[in-house]
Amino acid sequence: MTIVTGYETTELETRSTYFELADEWRSATGKGVSVAVIDSGIDITHPDLEGKVSSSVEARVENKKVVFDPVEPGEGLDLVGHGTACAGIISGIAPDAEFHSIRVLGTGGLGDGHAFLAGLEYAVKNRYRIINLSLGTTKPQFFSPLHDLLDRAYLAGCVVVAAANNLPHPSFPSVFSSSLISVVKSEEKDPFKFGFHFGQVIELTAPGVNVRTPWPAGGYRNLTGNSFACPHIAGIIALLLEAYPDLTPFQVKSALYAIARENIDKKKEESPEDE
Amino acid sequence: MAANQDPELVNKLQQLVETVDITNFLVEPLTRSIARLMEVAAADLGSSEASVLIRDGDQGDLRFLTAIGEVADQLLGMKVPAGKGIAGFVLSSGQPMVVSDVGEEESFYAEVDKATGYSTQMILATPLRFNDEVIGVLEFINRSGPPPWDQFTPDEMDKAAHCAEAIASLVNAYESAKLFRELGDKTLSEPGAVDLAAVREWLAGVRSSAEHREMMDLALLLREIAGRGDAERAMCRDILEAILRFSETKNETSFLG
Question: Cβ–Cβ of A125/B101 closer than 8 Å?
């Protein structure tokens, strides 16, 4: 059992929460939880992902606005591999989660942040419970619209999980600590043994080094990057939300910190010489 | 040649020739410095193959700007279509990544390997950023010596990212210098007075990065307006100031159509 307590101060109020998590969530499978993967698409023919992707759309620019078209079955579902890898990691932890692929990368001429933001807006409008963002932008002009979108996600009950920037620059949205969960890679292998550390913002740490992931055309790859740490946490959240469907994003965050703290304490007990 | 009778044209041509020489002088040392930095970084990462890919046009395509290692010469000028391969992902996502086992079925690398006879097995790819813009990708391929190799580590990813910062500013300088040189070539090959409209039309078709191209186009426009009189200059200034005010207050939050 994990005891969760959390306080959150916003401009308007201080919220607090206190609840107990029974360990049963650890054996959940993510059933009934919708997960949006905003990325390069998902190869739905990969054996690890077959039958798990409920919808696939791709971004296209029309009259300077972004529109989303359904991806035709059989048409290059993921030309890059990154989205398939991320979905595969989530599905490895939460095999019964329901995936929605929002392709904003690899379609040519869309790498400027607009498609990525539109993808986030699309996911929030569809109220997917978990939104996996293993990408980001460092362009300052997106700071304000992203902030607004994340607030909307938060109010809509969508839990946004973003990869922290691997580079020594702040990247958006992972620097917005209050309305999303940001994740950085660690060499840990067990997805349940995630931790956290304080950087510019509080970040969760999850496996992200040499992670074996599905790859388009039925293969597998070993990949390293914060991009692959982020879906580990998305998978854990899917388990929590199956067990406790009514958790708000704030409660999910508090639960993750409580579990991470337990994990860190356990690690200290097991190997005190590391400290 | 008519230039013999027209001292003004002779003067103009001389100026242009000097400009071209100066820019050649700028471009070449830049690519050499980039290659030198890559050698230092590659040695630090225990690799001997590295390449810098830069944007080719503004649709997400990439081309090899410079490379070091066994097959460097064959890579130069080679193109990577938008979104293809690890480099395409790194360009569009801005996220670095390491792939420890590229594998034979990886279509893009298989193509490049087929052309060069090289075998790509491990990749460390990190974005080149300048002014918050991803302008290219720095890649390190395999390690030195015979395989099996240790995978690239998170520390090595950080080292590569630091090196990418230095390389990115050189790449940006290279792109500006190259566009300037091309503009020099263009105006030199035009007989008679420089036709700004024609130069702008030419500029629109150049496969240089959008920011550099737009910047130069703006400069050409301003030059033309400035030549039209006081009233035009004042009006132009008012409009530009209005744009600045607009951009300061703009707060667009919907991106969907």
Answer: no
Model confidence pTM above 0.90: no
CB contact A199 to B (< 8 Å): no
The answer to whether the CB atoms of A167 and B84 lie below 8 A apart is no
Q: Name A204's bridge partners.
A: A183, A196
Question: Is the residue at A17 inside a domain?
Answer: no
Question: Does B15 lie at the interface with A, CB-CB under 8 angstroms?
Answer: no
Provide the 10 A C-beta neighbour count for residue A199. 14
| DSSP letter (8 states) at residue A113 | S
Could you give the number of structural domains in chain A? 1
Q: Strand A130-133 vs strand A34-39: parallel, antiparallel, or unpaired?
A: parallel
Position A184 scores a pLDDT of 86
Q: Which two tokens stand for residue A69?
A: 């078209």
- Percent of chain B residues past pLDDT 70, beyond the cut: 81
Mean pLDDT of chain A: 85
Query: Which residues on chain B are in Cβ contact (under 8 Å) with A148?
Result: 251, 253
Confirm whether A2 is domain-assigned: no
Q: What is the CATH number of the domain that holds A252?
A: 3.40.50.200
Catalytic site includes residue A39: yes
Mean confidence (pLDDT) of chain B:
80
Nearest to A219 among B82, B89, B105 (CB): B105
| Partner-chain residue, chosen from B82, B92, B98, that has the shortest CB–CB distance to A225 | B98
Tokens of A65: 């606005």
Domain assignment of residue A43, given as a range: 24-274
pLDDT band per the 50, 70, 90 thresholds, residue A191: very high
Tokens of B108: 């893009």
Domain-located, residue A259:
yes
Query: Does A227 participate in catalysis according to the annotation?
Result: yes
A73 part of a folded domain:
yes
Q: What architecture does CATH give domain B41-167?
A: 2-Layer Sandwich (3.30)
| Residues in chain A within 8 Å Cβ distance of B99 | 221-223
For the record, the structure tokens of B148 come out as 């099996």
- pLDDT, tens digit (0-9, with 9 covering 90-100), for B153-210: 989 998 999 899 999 999 988 888 888 777 777 766 666 666 777 777 777 777 777 7
